[in-house]
Amino acid sequence: MKRKHNVLWGVLALIAVFCLMFISGETARADSYYTISGNGNSTTTFYVQAWGSSTVDLTQKNGVFRYSGNTNTARAWGRFHIDISLNGSNQRLEWEPSTGTESLTLRLYTAGYYTVTVSPWSNAEIARQISGFGYWTTAPTWSVTGSNNCRLDSSSSAITTPVTNTAQLTVYYRDAYGNLLETHTVTCTQGSNTVTAPDTLRNGTYRRISPATSTVTLSSYGTLSPSSLTFYYVAEAVVTATPTPTPAPTTATCVVYYRDASGNLLQTQTATCYRGTNTITAPTTLQGGTYRLSSGSTQTVTLYSNGTLSPSSVTFYYSKVNTPTPTPVSATCRVYYRDASGNLIDSKTVTCGQGVNTITAPSTLQSGKYTLSSPATQTVTLYSNGTMSPSSVTFYYSKVPDATATITIRQVDVDTGAVLSTRYETLSVGTHTVYAGSTPSGYKAYSSTSTTVTVYSDGSVSKGLVTFQYRKQNPVTAAPTPYNPPAPAANQVIPTGWDTQFGPESKNPTGRDTLHRLYDGDPTTNFFYYMYDSEKADDIPEFTAYFDGATVSYLGLINGLTDWKNNNVAKPAQLSVRIYNDQGSFVQVIEPSLGGNSNMQMYSLGGTYENVTKIEIFVRLVRLGQESATKYEVHITEIAFYE
């Protein structure tokens, strides 16, 4: 029986121990809330300088708590207010044990000087929620366990004072494949630092291929940006032995198709696209408004970094518009020619057709006295409603300083070719009348005793040698058979003088007739001379006719003798005719008929030439009458000129 009592008391004692353990364990849990009066649990302040968006990690270390009247203790967290202040504004966070973790990350979104205050709840705040009483034997504490993009200190004066310092920058030297060749360190001071890489490494075996310099900034708080540098090099042997890789193109060509509603192609063009997204815009109409855009007006095309264009072409669709055909219009535009001061030199009107018209100014005016100083062309647009823009155009000219030229004036014997007199005259720019002068004693004028000579602005002249012909009144030798040339035709142009390369002692002095038989109007007379193959291509004219600013369109020719006995004489088969006027010189090739004919044959000079001063005739080819392998007896019956 005693043993049973002992067992019972043992069980009861064991139950009591368990109860006491349960009570003490329940009241000492780490998540209980307690008053904190007189326990030394004080406020902690942290000072943070943020350089931008940054974070601060705060961690609480558990305290040790004891109930009133109980000797048991337990580790526990406390309740705290966390105040974040910046420039007078404040944000409060609450930290309670129910957060389940001892760490808290504060996020600071802007740069500035922050004050972070961690203060425990007061007794009154805790008493409103918790009925337990006790005290901390060791108060919970807070510390900073991590930070990003900021600086922390225990005092505000220390954190707001910039720190002037230096830092060591690591500089890497690598080859084109990224392999490290060398590593150096450079001391950087506060502010901007320029780091320069050597041109070569390893005694010149590696050559730098990246830029020679780079800039590194050290902030007042010791932060390097960038934190390191890398320069790249390539082995010299590689540079001279492998080609440079072709970079991916930065532009590409996209084909743009314009089609009608049935898919028929109306027009094609190309558009240059650049790396990235490109917008291609279609015109609202095509072909002068005949077709109008019916699809979307824009499409996008992307050129990727590898050079791929997607899509490679785009298509826009158009509908045909039924519009009446406009009636073409025309209008006249007034063209003014003025000097540098705006004074009018000349003017004319030009007829313009609908659309864009180009008006071209002459390079000189008034026989070279003025030269063009403004652009040579201007455009005038005549719209379908008859409006012309601009309604007139003006070209400007500079006056050319007066130039002079000296010409030679000769009097010659028409029969012998002897020079009877020679004199010189100096003429200024412009057109002048030159006179033969006094008739030589014993002679009578055979040609006109005056002619015109033009001196151009560059000092060149229309005639450098002026020849007047005379015939002896009582020649020692028998005079040629006199002739009476017929009256010229209504549209015939009479030269003021003639010349030939054949003198009186030329190739056939006994058989040569006088020059006037070329233009005496008599088909029974002719001029003949000997010609060699070597003369067919020379630049000496067989005949030269002079004019006083005439208008010429045709050359008339009776080609050689016409009687049956002389049909086998040599006749010109090709003539090269060179016409000179104030616009320059022009060449027309004529191929005369070889058949005997007493009628004048007319040959076009290829147009109408105004202000003609000289016409040269070259015999380039002959037929028949070949006396030897290279010699011809050439006959020409008559030469005349017509408007």
Key traits:
Ubiquitin-like (UB roll), 6 domains, 643 residues, disordered N terminus, mainly beta, 48 strands, six-stranded antiparallel beta sheet, Jelly Rolls, seven-stranded antiparallel beta sheet, 4 helices
Brief sketch in words of this structure:
By secondary structure, the chain is mostly beta strands. It folds into six domains: 44-159, Jelly Rolls (Sandwich); 166-241, Ubiquitin-like (UB roll); 251-320, Ubiquitin-like (UB roll) (Roll); 330-399, Roll (Ubiquitin-like (UB roll)); 404-472, Immunoglobulins (Immunoglobulin-like, Sandwich), CATH 2.60.40.10; 492-642, Jelly Rolls, CATH 2.60.120. The chain starts with a helix and ends with a strand.
Description:
- This protein has 643 residues and is mostly beta strands.
- It folds into six domains: 116 residues, Jelly Rolls (Sandwich), CATH 2.60.120; 76 residues, Ubiquitin-like (UB roll) (Roll); 70 residues, Ubiquitin-like (UB roll), CATH 3.10.20; 70 residues, Ubiquitin-like (UB roll); 69 residues, Immunoglobulins (Immunoglobulin-like, Sandwich), CATH 2.60.40; 151 residues, Galactose-binding domain-like (Jelly Rolls, Sandwich), CATH 2.60.120.
- Helix content is 6%, strand content 53%.
- It has four helices and 48 strands.
- The chain is elongated.
- The N terminus is likely disordered.
